[in-house]
C-alpha cells in the first residue's frame, strides 16, 4: 500500500511540474505581438473579395501583404531606375533587390467605392482626389507608407497600389 502512495504522489508532483511549465510557456507566448498578414496567390483581376477582407485591410496597414510571393519593403529605399517586373497581373518595382512598390487590378465592376471606404475606415485617409473623366484616387496612410485605390467614373474599384514609405531618388 505504501508503494502505491509513493507512485501516486510522484505522479501528482510530475503532473504539477509539467502543468506549471506549460502555463509558464503559454503565458510567455501571449505577450508576443503578431502583426496581421495576408497572402494572395493568383490573378487579382479575377477576384475582388480580398479588397474588402478585414485581414487584407490590416495587412495593408502593417505592411505584411504578400501578393504572388511579393512583399513591398518596409525600409526606406534609394530608388535608382527601378526594374519593373510582373507576376500574373501584379506589377512591382524592384530597386537594389527590394520590392519598392506594387500595383494590382481588381475584378471589374465588383467593389463599390462606398463599400471599399467602409471596410478601410480603420485606416487614415490622406486624400480623396477627383481626376479627369470622373475617376478618383483615395490614398490611405499605413504604418510604413501609403496605399492608393483607384476608382472609375462609376465609382468602382479598378486598382490598388502600395506605395513605399520613403524614397530617395538618386541621379
UniProtKB/TrEMBL annotation:
Protein's organism: Macrococcus hajekii
InterPro entries: IsaB
Signal peptide: 1-26
Family the entry assigns: Belongs to the IsaB family.
Source lineage: Bacteria, Bacillati, Bacillota, Bacilli, Bacillales
Keywords: Secreted, Signal
This protein's name: Immunodominant staphylococcal antigen B
Compartments where located: Secreted
Superkingdom, natural source: Bacteria
Major location category of this protein: secreted
Amino acid at each position: 500500500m505504501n508503494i502505491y502512495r509513493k507512485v501516486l504522489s510522484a505522479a501528482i508532483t510530475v503532473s504539477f511540474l509539467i502543468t506549471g511549465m506549460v502555463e509558464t510557456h503559454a503565458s510567455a507566448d501571449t505577450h508576443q505581438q503578431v502583426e496581421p498578414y495576408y497572402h494572395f496567390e493568383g490573378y487579382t483581376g479575377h477576384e475582388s473579395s480580398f479588397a474588402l477582407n478585414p485581414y487584407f485591410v490590416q495587412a495593408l496597414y502593417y505592411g505584411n501583404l504578400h501578393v504572388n510571393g511579393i512583399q513591398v519593403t518596409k525600409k526606406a529605399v534609394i530608388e535608382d531606375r527601378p526594374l519593373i517586373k510582373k507576376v500574373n497581373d501584379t506589377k512591382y518595382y524592384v530597386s537594389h533587390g527590394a520590392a519598392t512598390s506594387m500595383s494590382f487590378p481588381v475584378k471589374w465592376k465588383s467593389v463599390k467605392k462606398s463599400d471599399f471606404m467602409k471596410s478601410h475606415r480603420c485606416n487614415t485617409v490622406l486624400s480623396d482626389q477627383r481626376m479627369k473623366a470622373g475617376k478618383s484616387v483615395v490614398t490611405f496612410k499605413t504604418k510604413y507608407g501609403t496605399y492608393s485605390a483607384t476608382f472609375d467614373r462609376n465609382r468602382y474599384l479598378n486598382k490598388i497600389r502600395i506605395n513605399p514609405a520613403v524614397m530617395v531618388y538618386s541621379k
